[in-house]
Design a protein that fits this description.
Order of helices and strands: EEHEEEEEEE
Number of strands: 9
Distance between the termini: 29 Å
Mean pLDDT: 93
Strand order of the largest sheet: 3-1-2-4-5
Low-confidence stretches: none
Helix content: under 10%
Number of domains: 1
Structural class: mainly beta
Number of helices: 1
Radius of gyration: 14 Å
Largest sheet: 5 strands, mixed
Length: 104
Amino acid sequence: MVVLELHGSGGHIIADVTDEQAKLSDLGVGKNFLAPIGKLEEQKMQKYFCKKCEGEFDGSPKIQIEESPNEPVADDLILIERGQYTCHKCDSIIGEYRVFQKKE
């Protein structure tokens, strides 16, 4: 496990992630990003920063499930869940996530 600052469009989250998640989050631009990781577990998130509030908060942001479409997005890939990490104080979006599953 490694602690990383994971960036989203509306702020960032400090979280414990696995080595595999760390590799996924690194897009080669000197920052790590939330989107490629998928859904993080609340207990893995230590704190978050909201750009709108301009503040840092302990614990995890709210996790809001936008939808659970179970829709095919490629030949062997299904979108299982789409959601957002939002600020507890102002409800602004910190970042978004997608959960995929491979067809067998």
